[in-house]
Amino acid sequence: MLIPEFSNTYAALGASFSTALEPTPVPSPELVKLNDELANLLGFEPADLASEKGVNMLAGNESFEGMAPLAAVYAGHQFGQFNPQLGDGRAILLGEVVTSDKARFDVQLKGAGQTPYSRGGDGRAPLGPVLREYLVSEAMHALGVPSTRSLAAVTTGELVYREEPLHGAVLTRVASSHIRIGTFQYFAAKGMRDELKQMADYVIQRHYPEAAHTAQPYVELLIGVAKNQASLIAKWQQLGFIHGVMNTDNVLLSGETIDYGPCAFLDVFNPEQVFSSIDRGGRYAYQNQPSIAHWNIMNFAQTLLPLIDEDTEKAVESAQQVVDQFQGHYQTAYQEGMNRKLGLASDCVAGAALSDSFLVLLAEGQCDFTLAFRRLSEIFHETLSGSEGAGAAGGDSVSALFEFPASFADWLQEWKQVLREPGCASINPTEIFKANPVYTPRNHLVEKAILEGYQGNYQVFEDLLTRVTNPTMFNKQDAEYARAPKREEVVRQTFCGT
Description:
The chain is an alpha+beta fold. The protein has 16 helices and 13 strands. The protein has helices at 36-42, 46-49, 52-59, 127-142, 181-189, 193-207, 217-239, 289-308, 312-324, 326-341, 351-365, 369-385, 409-419, 431-435, 443-454, 459-468; strands spanning 6-7, 18-20, 30-34, 70-72, 76-78, 81-83, 91-98, 104-110, 125-126, 149-161, 165-175, 241-242, 264-265. Helix 4 (127-142) packs across helix 15, helix 7 (217-239) packs antiparallel against helix 8 and helix 7 (217-239) runs parallel beside helix 9. The longest helix is centred in the middle third of the chain and has 23 residues, at 217-239. The two termini are 35 Å apart.
């Protein structure tokens, strides 16, 4: 059996950071989906993971040699309210594997049973949220967004009880690490400076090794995390992705997206859009995500103050300088990405006004976000070539699914004029298709896959997964996966599954 060698550097940090425990066994696990590509990357033989022994491991019934399962402790601001102790309430870290190119990844089971941090919960996951996370996390990876990934989904053969009894499942989640802003908040809140320093040094070693050789390593750590978050949120905004629960315990210091609970992609563009059933005040609406990320970084900075300088005033001054730079980092990353979506060079100064006015028109016209940008990609190529049709780079045209209304005529003319200006058009015309996918995990399609999955039919899930992991090349026969939802198909609320 080909199993990569596991290491356990996080477990080695000590008992203050986690609790060692085994997953809770399940009665009859069955494999729903195995990510062969990711398995190979991690050093697993896919056939071995699909075997009875492998499925038992993926369900939490059996351990492989070298694993040291644990549940990590952390704190966090949840919808702005600080909770001094949270932790892995239904997730268990099996250990870490190192790939052939020396990249280190956590392998974690989500839905693996109760832990000391379950807070009265059952520690289990229904099948629906597992399928959602598998679809969305792999779609995000295919879209070039840093993200946790899904190695496998298995059913457990038991029911979990939410509003109704639901089939249970376990997701095997892979991440560069699962260390959060909330991890630092836990030790900072308890005044555990030694452990705080230990964690900071660990994160530097694992994710920001260049910081270790600077005069102010903890300031450099803050800078690195802030830049990664700014870049990440910019990518979310460019794709119309709404995370839904940007609590500090859901912010990974690696810069990856985590926790695909009440997440969703925009259909009709609405900056105030909220999908999460628990976000009644709109705290995590689409338009608020950059400012919330800024606020989260401020909270991370606060935890580092005792490490930055013994003089609190000096520490605050150093940290504040970094926090104040966040908006600039975000705006730069955002605008460069929006320029790519418009077919413009990254330094084209006209891009900001064009992208802003385009979004205003989208909102006023209640236009589909994904299809509007995709159709723009096709018009870009039509403009450059002087002929109708999207060209080979983008496959078939989406014009039958979306065409701009008359209200866009002036904007389109202005945009085409900018494209003709020296140095403004992108030097790589195919980049616009990469920036403007045609397939995203649309809410109504995800819900359909979930409902069919509960009936034991995973073909809808498989078909959707195939499209969203190949998001840029459109074929007319796959129009069902690209079109906007019909009125009766619109999903207005999403749920986290806890």
